[in-house]
Amino acid sequence: MKGKIQVVESEIQEEVVSENENTVKLCHGEALTISEGYTIAGAKRTQVIIIAGEVGSGKTSLIATLFHCLQRGPFCDYMFAGSKTLIGFDQRCHEARTSSSRAIQTMERTKSGEDRILLHLHLRHKEKLQQSVHVLFSDLSGERFRDAKDSIEECRSVPLLQRADHFVLLIDGDRICDIAKRQSAKSETIMLLQRCLDAEQLNNNSLIDLVFSKWDIVDSREDDANTLEFVKTIEVSIREKFFARVGRLRFFRIAARPDTNSDHINLGFGLEAMVPSWFEEKADMIVPRCPLNIQVPKHCEYDQFGQEYIAMENL
Ligand SMILES: Nc1nc2c(ncn2[C@@H]2O[C@H](COP(=O)(O)OP(=O)(O)OP(=O)(O)O)[C@@H](O)[C@H]2O)c(=O)[nH]1
Ligand SMILES: [Mg+2]
User: Is the pLDDT confidence value at 315 over 60?
Assistant: First the structure.
């Protein structure tokens, strides 16, 4: 075919062959800005996944490993069907490749203040081929969540939190193993959840996954009953404080990028139990609707509708 290839900055539409100019327009391939993300979310069935957690807790590694697993074939029943952010994924995976000459794998730190924070996947169900979904993952820096935990304004400024279909909060397994750091890891997690609820960024519709990351490190100390006991106390405290205030609370243990593969902890350990829900479930499929309660005015949209209906019936 005769024609030219044009990489269109800040455009993310499907690749188009323009008949007039005989031009193939390609998307830029880097991570997307929020407004570019809305272009996809407004046009297609899209799941928005916010990955939160302290600096270095493994947020970017989780997204990069998921991408890696999908490159090897169907993962969690879904096949890779495209991405607008292939360069963004590649930039994030580059430092962590096993072919890296470094002895220990490392992931480049996510820069705070970065505009291009969304990574995009288009997935297709491996059997029901007509079932496809677009997924947008946030890749924000840990500093953003550190600030959000300390200030309601900062919390309100975290993009897309209210629109999130799933809020995934990582607790660094490496810190949990360290007696000097584990208490602050626990209290910071609780403070961030509390702040998000106070700022109305999360609410009783939110689907929340609490994820102990770097489980390979915790697992390598399995003789250390103290650490496992501490993990349980975190789960109990978080359940007690937040179970009734959010739509769903689940706990997982993952090792997205273990330092060394053991016989039971490999790359992407724990993801298969957690990830399918991110592709398939939205709050209205999981959280029961509020019962009609005409005593509480405008308790929820459903109640408001019920009240108006009853008022009309009585006219
Ligand atoms: N042992 C182990 N290390 C991991 C695992 N996942 C990530 N890491 C390492 O943890 C470090 C931090 O990972 P990142 O993914 O950059 O963490 P982050 O939360 O994105 O960090 P910021 O962007 O700085 O907030 C890197 O050196 C990773 O290689 C894991 O499952 N096991
Ligand atoms: Mg990062």
Answer: no
Query: Do 122 and 54 fall into the same domain?
Result: yes
Residue-wise pLDDT tens digits, 269-300: 999 999 999 999 999 888 886 665 545 454 55
**Mean pLDDT across 291-311:** 53
Of all protein residues, the one whose alpha carbon is nearest to atom 13 of ligand 1 is 58
User: How many angstroms separate the alpha carbon of residue 86 from the centre of ligand 2?
Assistant: 17
Instruction: State what percent of residues in the chain have pLDDT above 70.
Output: 77
Q: Is 270 in the pocket of ligand 1 (CB under 6 A)?
A: no
Atom in ligand 1 nearest the alpha carbon of residue 65 = 6
Q: Is 265 in the pocket of ligand 1 (CB under 6 A)?
A: no
Check whether 304 has a pLDDT greater than 60.
no
**Element of type H or E holding 7:** strand 4-8
Q: How far apart are CA 221 and CA 40, in angstroms?
A: 44
The mean pLDDT value for 11-15 works out to 52
Chain-centre distance of CA 287, in angstroms? 19
* Token duo for residue 295: 């005593």
Q: Residue 62: which of 145, 158, 168 has the closest Cα?
A: 168
Ligand closest in space to the Cα of 271 = 1
If one counts the domains in the chain, the total is: 3
Structure tokens at 190: 């609780």
Domain carrying residue 302: 290-315
Domain with residue 269: its CATH number is 3.40.50.300
Task: Please tell me if the CB atom of residue 201 comes closer than 6 angstroms to any atom of ligand 1.
Answer: no
pTM: 0.85
Nearest CA to ligand 1 atom 7: 58
Centroid of ligand 1 to alpha carbon of 95 (angstroms): 11
Q: Let me know whether 62 and 178 are in one domain.
A: yes
Q: Is 136 in the pocket of ligand 1 (CB under 6 A)?
A: no
Is the domain of 203 the same as that of 239?
Answer: yes
Over the chain, what is the mean pLDDT? 86
Ligand nearest to the CA of 266: 1
Distance (Å, rounded) from C-alpha 31 to C-alpha 118?
Answer: 5
